[in-house]
UniProtKB/TrEMBL annotation:
Coiled coil: none annotated. InterPro entries: DctP_fam (IPR018389), TRAP_DctP (IPR004682), TRAP_DctP_sf (IPR038404). This is TRAP transporter substrate-binding protein. Pfam families: DctP. It comes from Desulfonema ishimotonii. Keywords: Signal, Transport. The keyword Signal applies. Residues 1-22 form the signal peptide. One of its GO terms (biological process) is transmembrane transport. GO terms for cellular component: outer membrane-bounded periplasmic space. Gene3D superfamilies: Bacterial extracellular solute-binding protein, family 7.
Length: 325
């Protein structure tokens, strides 16, 4: 009976693999709502893959937490019940600590450097590492440089952060960053508008598009341009599912997702100046020139903390720091 089951499973996988572009449907999970950075990647991918496959491949985007938070989406991708996802980098560190390297504070000087490194060999090393956790890393799209907002006081130095209750992602690294800076970090799944509005948390940290799309200018008075972490999305597929696809289908999916990521990065960056202007007009008090040297000095000990002591993680961090000097 066991042999029959194995043989049947093999035949099923083989048949799927040989007909991978015949009316194939992809479930793609994102936690954010339409208009958000993740959704722009997902929608562009859907457009490109459906066009290039001549309709043989269709994509259903599950947005707005329809199938769970980012950690739950990743778990479904591991199991193969969801085929793909556009996920913020932070939640991956509970699956593979190597991802902590790209979220190291003040790592990248700007967008051009981030693209060069993440599209290059070091980025590919991180994507390849995810296979050990059941993910096929495809490429990096962009969440953006994260900035601090709060509703209590203006923040210019790390000392100003002391005691602020800041929402963070479900990420050991992000929690440690804000503990090191003197805040009270509070892991909390997305979305968080109600919690900010009711004062359950004082503030949060995210890229500019979040302030616009989620209307945080309505409930957050102060923003500090800390740019403390460059936050990519990691665009992934279920490795279990990926291995059933024919090589030509894999190439088509990979290329369509990369092209969608490049489109989205440019779109996100092109909008940032207008976003800042709008946020000021809406009444946010924006600190453009915080004491970033003081912030960098405060978080410098992170490289020697337990989060980076794993030999593989530490070696990659040193390569990353060298590449971004």
């Amino acid at each position: 009976m066991k042999r029959v089951f194995i043989l049947s499973a093999f035949i099923a996988v083989f048949c799927f693999a040989t007909t991978a572009t015949a009316a194939m449907k992809i479930k793609l999970g994102v936690v954010t709502k339409p208009g958000s950075a993740q959704n722009i990647v997902a929608e562009k991918f859907k457009e490109l893959i459906e066009q290039r496959s001549k309709g043989d491949i269709t994509v259903k985007i599950y947005h707005s937490k329809a199938i769970g938070n980012e950690t739950e989406i990743l778990q479904q991708i591991q199991m193969g019940t969801v085929q793909m996802g556009v996920i913020t980098g932070g939640p991956f560190d509970t699956f593979d600590p190597v991802v902590r390297v790209i979220n190291y504070p003040f790592l990248f000087s700007g967008h051009e450097q981030a693209d060069k490194v993440l599209d290059g060999p070091l980025g590919q090393e991180i994507l390849k590492s995810l296979e050990s956790s059941g993910f096929k890393g495809l490429c990096f799209s962009e969440n953006g440089f994260r900035n601090l907002t709060n509703n209590k006081k203006a923040v210019k130095t790390p000392e100003d952060i002391s005691g602020l209750k800041i929402r963070v992602m479900s990420s050991a690294l992000h929690k440690t960053i804000w503990q090191t800076l003197g805040a009270n970090p509070t892991p909390m799944p997305w979305p968080i508008y109600t919690e900010l509005e009711q004062g359950v948390i004082d503030g949060q940290e995210n890229p500019l598009w979040v302030m616009e799309v989620y209307k945080f200018y309505e409930i957050q008075k102060y923003m500090t341009m800390t740019r403390h972490v460059y936050s990519p999305h990691i665009d992934v597929a279920s490795l279990m599912w990926w291995n059933t696809l024919r090589p030509d289908t894999q190439k088509m999916v990979q290329t369509a997702m990369y092209d969608a990521a490049v489109f989205q990065r440019k779109d996100n960056r092109d909008r940032n100046a207008a976003r800042l202007k709008m946020l000021r007009e809406k009444g946010m008090a924006i600190e453009d020139a915080p004491d970033l040297n003081a912030f960098r000095a405060k978080v410098a000990p992170l490289r020697d903390m337990d989060l980076y002591k794993d030999a593989r993680v530490h070696a990659l961090l040193l390569k990353m720091l060298d590449a971004t000097k």
